[in-house]
Amino acid sequence: MKKIFTLIALTASFAVAMMSSTSCAKFLDEAPNSDQPKEYIFQDYLRSQRYLDMLYYYMNPTWVGDGKFNGNYGFLESATDMSEYTAEYGATNKSFNVGNWKASAADFEVSDIWYRCYKQIRRAYMFMENMDQFNNEPEGRKVLMEGECHFMIAYFYFELYKRYGAVPLVKKVLSLDEDYMIPRSTEEQTLSLILSELDRSEELVPDEWPTEDFGRVTKAWNKALRSRVLLYAASPRHNPENDLKKWEEAAEAARDCMEYCEATGYHALYHDYQNIFMRQTPDKISEIIVFKRAGTYAYRFTGKIITYEQATPGEDFWGYASNSPSQNLVDRYPIIKFDADGNAIGTEEFDWNNPDHVKHIYQNRDPRFYYTILYNGRRWIKRDIATWRDGSNYGADRDPKNQLFSRTGYYLRKFWPRECADKNYAGSSMIYGFYIRLGEIYMNFAEAMNEAYGPDYTVNINGKPFSAVDAVNAIRARLVCPATDNIGTTVSDPYYYVRIEREENPDFPVLPNGMPGFEKGMSKDQAREKIHNERTIEFAFEDQYFYDILRWKEGDKHIGTTLYGVDVVKNTTGDEPFTYIKTAIETRPFYKDRMYFYPIPQSEVYNLGVEQNPGW
């Protein structure tokens, strides 16, 4: 079966999926919706553009909803020590957590993505090979369309690279009489192709598009993806000899993107961390660079996202929970240290051997903890979350006999706005999936700069010295949480939702200057550990962590490890209402001889002679 190359070789017709359409005529709202011959498509500009626009539609699923596993549910973070997918039907339960990455539940992520990417690479080449046939386009449009295609080729090849490593490089539409036995390239050849496509795209696409074309490839898209690509290329999985030049190149790519965004003003760190993910469309969130666009359709908070991914099955919410944050993750959120006047003066790691930490387990934590995790006693929408036990009595959010309730003692809050009161009422909020935000570029810069030069070494960004520590501190500094008296009472105040947080949650800290930053003078090894931790909590559940673990080659530390939760015991005597006990949930396998790369679909190995990844 010549599946990937059959997709590339077909020249007679194209099956183009129907997309959601609405009354708003944006660029992805209309597309060909039936099998249509090549000659018909490319004789007309509008039909050709719709064919190209399907590249955006078929960009790989983001972290919202069930797209990652195409109906088997779960975030990929539940294959790591970040989370537990509690329902037995989850893809991570059936596949990743038992070491069987070839299980059918994981097919869409592990093997189907191979075919999906090659099909869209073929679409981009098909477009460029036939774009001369239509002549009724607006002036200069063909140049921009070619730029979009080059970006998409780079994007889909990178999606292959980050999963499989080196892959066969197909650089044109193959005819049926050509040789399909194309061997895998080297990793350097794969990387070189991705970077050359990004270079070509950046030359052709604009800094920004007119409003009606918002969401198309820009120069910032190219710079952002280049930063991610080079960070992966420098990381231990792809750079086992730790060639520092690769880290220098990754640092320079991140610096270039940051400098461009600051100089042009197109993208900036957003002041309100929780609202990066909800309530506003991407054009209103300056931090979002590359995002998932599918017409005017928005991922709204209805059944799939809340019911199957986050909402507690307890009274009022009636969800299926499932992606339950772990104690491993909770422990990674630092504790803020305050002086006698209430000023934040630093942070420290949570320590279960520190009685004061355990006694005040959810107090004075990083604001991102409160924006991400629902825990026992936390007021949420209608009531307090209750994950406690008292003999045979259980709180509303705990039931050890029901697979849908959290086994870790926590529920996921990050993408769940309070406007969505239950699965039957989505409220007015919405969520858009995105791929890269500027915060990632800052963290890419921090990681690469530390590895190349150390944590305090500076380079100039628009004339200002900037180090790895400075980049992390910029991320922390935007976590501004003014005192309630300094926040307005209407949504027009930029910190209105901080007010709401604190009214509901007395644990929420006062940080008028943001989170305290990293201190200078760390060693490279110390900074690496802290930067990895900062990246983990900053991008929790944003489809980064699993791939980060693989590129860091820390699978035995964060995949094949013991997952912990918390046992919350209701006290009948004493001053403290609850006792919190760290509890092992399960221990998962990780086979480092094979699990740092995905298995290539076996049909490709058998029929096309594609070399399988080691161990599979």
Taking pLDDT < 50 over at least 5 consecutive residues as the criterion, the unreliable ranges are: 1-34, 295-303
User: Going across the major beta sheet, what is the strand order?
Assistant: 13-12-19-20
The chain-level structural class is alpha+beta
Q: Roughly how many Å is the radius of gyration? A: 24 Å
The rough form would be described as globular
> Number of helical runs?
20
Assembly state: single chain
* Average of pLDDT: 89
Largest sheet: 4 strands, mixed
The count of strands amounts to 20
N- to C-terminal separation? 19 Å
Beta content: 5-15%
Helical fraction equals: 25-40%
SSE topology:
Layout: H1 3-9, E1 13-14, E2 36-37, H2 38-42, H3 45-57, E3 83-85, H4 91-94, H5 107-130, H6 141-164, H7 187-204, H8 219-234, H9 244-264, E4 288-291, E5 299-300, H10 303-310, E6 323-325, H11 327-330, E7 335-338, E8 344-348, H12 355-359, H13 367-372, E9 373-374, E10 379-380, E11 383-384, E12 388-390, E13 393-394, E14 411-412, E15 430-431, E16 434-437, H14 438-453, E17 459-461, E18 464-466, H15 468-477, H16 496-504, H17 524-538, H18 545-552, H19 555-558, E19 562-570, E20 578-587, H20 602-608
Parallel strand pairs: 12-19
Antiparallel strand pairs: 1-2, 3-6, 4-16, 5-15, 7-8, 9-14, 10-11, 12-13, 17-18, 19-20
Helix pairs in contact: 1-5, 3-5, 5-6, 6-7, 6-8, 7-8, 8-9, 8-14, 9-14, 14-15, 14-17
